[in-house]
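Per reviewer request, we include the raw input and output of the structure prediction for the construct analysed in the revised manuscript.
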Amino acid sequence: MLSWLFKKRGNVDAPIAPPNPAHADRQAAARRPAPAAAGAAGPVEAPGPDWPAQLQAAAGDEAALLRIAQTAPVLQVKMAAVEALISEGALKSAEREFRSHDRKVHRLAKQRLEAAITTRLARAKAQTLLERTTVLMGQALVPVNHVVELDRDWLALPANALEPGQSVEFAERRARLDSVMRERDAAHLRLQRWTADAKRFLLDWQRAIHATAEQGSANDATVLGQAVQALRQARPEVAATAELDRSLAQAQQSACLVEARLARLEAQPADAADPMPPAASVRRERNTGRSGSAISTTRRRWRAPAGSTCPRARGSSVW
């Protein structure tokens, strides 16, 4: 018994021989499953849809783009389809469709919908401001605060949302508005100046024409007529000056009558004319000198014509 145990132990302690490589390869080959027969092979998977081609074919057709966004299994394809949508109606449909799922696609649809609404409102507001600019150009008096409000409202618009031609058109109309305002300011200033000069002239006219008729000469009456004619020629052609122009026309007619009367007196022989007393001569010099400054100022400012303004000087036979 003991000898058998010791013999058994001796076999355990004996060295183990290395494995044969050829034998190991044969065992591995035996463990591999045999290849299936060609007839027993499974069905070949068909290729998927060509999404880039479908997106390109659906360009401009928002109904087709919405179908692609709804049916495509790939997130990038869904987002590309939503990105191609333009109208607010289609974007609203996409926003509602993906509201409960596909958060990224829903967020994109919502952002594009908000941008479309902003663009529509901005362009409508820009058109309103363009029309307001045209209205201001047609007003006789443009309030400055309206122009300031117009500029402020235009600057508040998102420039990237406007149509390309709207910014250019506003710049052109705004420049024309500035030009119109400058012209009207100059015309208004000229109207105020002419009205003030005409009223002041008519106040001095009464004294001057009486002094000339009593103690002046035909040349003095000619000077008065030239001043009146200068004012009438420089009159702004507006309704506000019509009444003053009628008063000036009457003054011009009176100057012509006085000029004709004095011309007849001067044409008489010296012995036939009544001699002027020395005191009257002194009064004449004082009166003509006193009224001459206002009349001369008017003639210089409004460029009085040379010579007589009465019909007699133009060859008329009324005299």
